[in-house]
UniProtKB/TrEMBL annotation:
The keyword Lipid metabolism does not apply. SUPFAM superfamilies: NAD(P)-binding Rossmann-fold domains (SSF51735). It holds the Pfam family adh_short. InterPro entries: NAD(P)-bd_dom_sf, SDR_fam, Sec_Metab_Biosynth_Oxidored. This is NAD(P)-binding protein. Gene3D superfamilies: NAD(P)-binding Rossmann-like Domain. PANTHER family: ALCOHOL DEHYDROGENASE-LIKE C-TERMINAL DOMAIN-CONTAINING PROTEIN, YALI0E05731P. Keywords: Oxidoreductase. GO terms for molecular function: oxidoreductase activity.
Length: 331
């Protein structure tokens, strides 16, 4: 475990030279995205941040942006409206960002929620949580790779379930469409594993980009209740049992923000960023170079080597081919 004091000491070294010059926060209007974005602004560094969120969040987010400007007038935070559960909207907003920025240093992805309710699809026919937790994220990465590659130390962070991969991924029904095949625990395991498999493939194809799939630990953002069926027995149990447990065992908002900011900037992951003299992270292929790192909420990296090797052999190509087929109309 990287001690929080060490994390904060590293973050205190963030300056104009080591902060991301241009960052994109997708779903930065609440929860971990919002906490991390604020922590970045509070460093005082000069940075430009595209904050992507839904129309319904605009009013409160503009007030948040005013607050950030008062904290650090050198940070420019640009409200960017998009309903990114829709892949067409993701394509549109990526085109907008690319039209304005020749380079992007950091892409920070936190879209999604725990799908403990019934299976619900977007207008494009994709299960909502799967779109947010996997397809949207991969689509953002693929669209922004040309400008990420223009940065000196490009980094992509997907916050979901790094280190929790399983070989029990369902390859016969990747989108969990068959009757009775969709339920919360299975969906989260499926989407989390797909994240690591997809990022591992992207890392193979883009050796100059550092990818991190992180597990945020317990953070009381209210997100655990978002995907429930209101009034159901599951809803009642989550409200009565799970949500109080999350509040009881969660780390503080500040600890979460600082740890995620460390992952955004520290040379612990891939050797580029704020200098780090502690134990370096190790990627899924057992080395310290850029690749994909599975980061625990403690800021340690885990190889999960046996599982990742098995997934590469048996699942990766099928998942990647399916992903590209799904995303082809939006690439």
């Amino acid at each position: 475990m990287v001690a929080l004091t060490e994390v904060k000491a590293s973050n205190a070294l963030i300056n104009d030279a080591t902060a991301p010059r241009v960052a994109v926060f997708v779903s930065g209007t609440a929860g971990i995205g919002k906490l991390t974005l604020k922590a970045l602004v509070e460093t005082g560094a000069s940075t430009r941040i595209y904050l992507v969120g839904r129309k319904s969040a605009e009013e409160r987010t503009r007030a948040f942006i005013d607050e950030l400007h008062a904290i650090n007038a050198r940070a420019e935070v640009i409200w960017t409206e998009a309903e990114v559960s829709l892949l067409a909207e993701t394509k549109r907003v990526c085109g907008l960002i690319k039209s304005k920025e020749p380079r992007v240093d950091l892409l920070f992805l936190t879209t999604g929620y725990a799908p403990f309710g019934k299976r619900t699809e977007t207008a494009e026919g994709v299960e909502v949580a799967q779109s947010l937790e996997y397809y949207t994220r991969v689509l953002f990465i693929q669209h922004l790779l040309p400008v990420l590659r223009q940065a000196e130390a490009p980094r992509v962070i997907s916050v979901l379930a790094g280190g929790m991969e399983s070989t029990w991924v369902d390859l016969d029904d990747i989108d969990l469409k068959r009757p009775g095949n969709f339920w919360g625990g299975k969906a989260q395991l499926q989407y989390g594993t797909m994240n690591s498999v997809g990022l591992d493939k992207l890392a193979q194809l883009n050796s100059d980009v550092t990818f991190i799939h992180s597990s945020p630990g317990w953070v009381s953002t209210g997100n655990v209740l978002r995907g429930r069926d209101a009034g159901s027995i599951t809803d009642w149990l989550m409200w009565l049992v799970l949500e109080p447990l999350v509040r009881l065992f969660s780390m503080t908002d500040d600890a979460s923000a600082q740890r995620n900011l460390f992952q955004c900037t520290s040379a612990s992951f891939g050797g580029r960023g704020v200098p780090w003299t502690g134990k370096p992270g190790v990627n899924t292929r057992g080395n310290k170079a850029a690749g994909v790192f599975l980061a625990k909420y403690t800021c340690d990296s885990v190889e999960n080597a046996k599982t990742m090797a098995a997934l590469r052999e048996k699942a990766q190509q099928k998942i990647w081919d399916h992903t590209q087929e799904m995303l082809r109309p939006y690439l």
